[in-house]
Amino acid sequence: MTVREDIHSAGIPVLCQSCEARHRGVCGALDPDQLVGLAKTSSRHSVEPGSELIGDAETVDSYSNVLSGVVKLTKSLSDGRQQIVGLQFAPDFLGRPFKMESEINAEAATAVSLCSFPKTAIERMMKQSPELEHRLLKQTLNELDEARDWMVTLGRKTAAEKVASFLLMIARNIDPTLDPATNATSFDLPLTRADIADFLGLTIETVSRQLTRLRTDAVIRIDNNRHVTVDSLTRLASRSGA
Amino acid sequence: MTVREDIHSAGIPVLCQSCEARHRGVCGALDPDQLVGLAKTSSRHSVEPGSELIGDAETVDSYSNVLSGVVKLTKSLSDGRQQIVGLQFAPDFLGRPFKMESEINAEAATAVSLCSFPKTAIERMMKQSPELEHRLLKQTLNELDEARDWMVTLGRKTAAEKVASFLLMIARNIDPTLDPATNATSFDLPLTRADIADFLGLTIETVSRQLTRLRTDAVIRIDNNRHVTVDSLTRLASRSGA
DNA sequence: CAAGGGCTTTGACCGAAATCAAGGCATTGG
DNA sequence: CCAATGCCTTGATTTCGGTCAAAGCCCTTG
Asked: At which of A98, A130, A154 does a domain end?
């Protein structure tokens, strides 16, 4: 069971008072008393696609729960080559505990809404509440797992398998209409072709060609360049290389 | 500062009684009283290169500190394609807290010595000692950082850059004779060409050819197929693509 | 020493994906 | 309505790394 599933199934809805929304991110680990303290300092934001959330530019001093939308984590080489090293969906927690040396950027891939807390507030709370740190450890272990799965994709899969794996991963994360009977599903791509290329270690052209192939082979349909309909998840999975 | 450096610089030597060795892994987070309890259940092992430490076969029910040697973490696709997703050096902590779903294998790349504890003992201790969980969180964050760095290497670097990056990483981790003056260093490769290929997402032949190129360009020397001498770390770094 | 096996190197050739180059198709704004 | 802009697709060509094949080099073992 992933952390995400765990939080969902635990079903701990927490009224985060400042952002006036019920959500289930890391806040779910706090007891009501603690939460009231935290809520006073939290605030809800909505940001445009493309906004930089964590970057080299401004030293960001806050943590956030992702309430909706998709955030991409990227790293770049000095000559501009870029790689997306992670995607965060609701209710993931966004931020860098204990300043790591690694330079990472976070950018809104879609419209994103966040509930943010000052770094100091979270860090104070973490000292008091082992349960909060435990939650964080679990999310981190989960992200590590995902990162390692993608290392296999990046290092050992063909372009066709990479694209199929990507679609499968997105479907699993934001699929609104999973139909177990027909084994079909549909969703909006949260990333542009360029982002997908940066995620899979390919070029835009190769991503486009592979999507075209999946379309002509009738594995998927794409409307408005965004909305994907997968006719058979199993057929897609069989092309993802395990 | 990496976790590894942190543990080293903190300089917390702990006498782990059962293995009768001073080491500084996760045990360093425990106070002496707790340690006595743990030490009763711990034991020191030495394993041959190639031994499987964590695998699909036997469900391993213990955690370990790596005392010396190098452990490779691998993942495989159903058709046998393999990817190394991490390397662990002393004093890293080896094991899977909270059973994750991801199937991962750990195998001794070199001769390895370990200090192992039963899973139950560590887990009991973790509930009592927030400091232990904190250490674990820090190591996990560090591994996540490393994994994401390698995603950039796997997705966006050329074969030449991959091999240079690999040598640089190994040098940083097990360099016994770093000479800041001449900027030179030397070390034994802990991995075979096949392992290096699995780590970098390349074939054996490509790894061999790139090493040959570095040799003919006088950036490195290799003796006995194992012992590498880097004449200029900066020159090597300049070939690693940042 | 010779034989054998495991690992590594090297060479010739091939192919998947990158690069280079147009062109299409929406949305936006004058 | 017609540029203009930003994505996306498609085609032609090139190239980097993979594949196939052979040989070299150690190291062990009889």
From this structure: A154
Same domain (yes/no): A138, A220: no
Cα angle, residue B108 at apex, residues B105 and B112 outer, rounded to 5°: 140
Q: Using a CB–CB cutoff of 8 Å, tell me whether B129 touches chain A.
A: no
Of chain B residues 171-230, which have a CB less than 8 A from chain A? 200-201
> ipTM score of the complex?
0.91
**d(C-alpha A195, C-alpha A77), whole Å:** 16
Q: Tokens representing A218?
A: 């009738």
Q: Is A150 touching B (CB cutoff 8 A)?
A: yes
Considering the domain architecture, whether residues B101 and B64 belong to the same structural domain is answered as yes
**What tens digit of pLDDT does each residue of B215-227 get?**
999 999 999 999 9
Closest C1' nucleotide to A195's CA: D7
Segments forming the whole domain that contains residue A79: 3-154
A201:B154 CB<8 A: yes
pLDDT interval class at A20 (50, 70, 90): low
- Token output for B116: 């192992």
| pLDDT exceeds 50 at position B228 | yes
Boundary of a domain, candidates B136, B153, B170: B153
Closest-CA distance, B119 to chain A, in angstroms, reads 17
How many structural domains compose chain B? 2
The nucleotides of chain C lying under 7 Å from a protein CB are 7-12, 16-21, 27
pLDDT at B107 exceeding the cut of 80: yes
What single-letter amino acid sits at A12? I
CA atoms of A230 and A220, how far apart (whole Å): 5
For residues A204 and A99, membership in a common domain is answered with: no
Whether the CB of A5 is below 8 Å from some CB of chain B: the reply is: no
**pLDDT digit string (tens) for A50-84?**
988 887 655 577 889 999 999 999 999 999 999 99
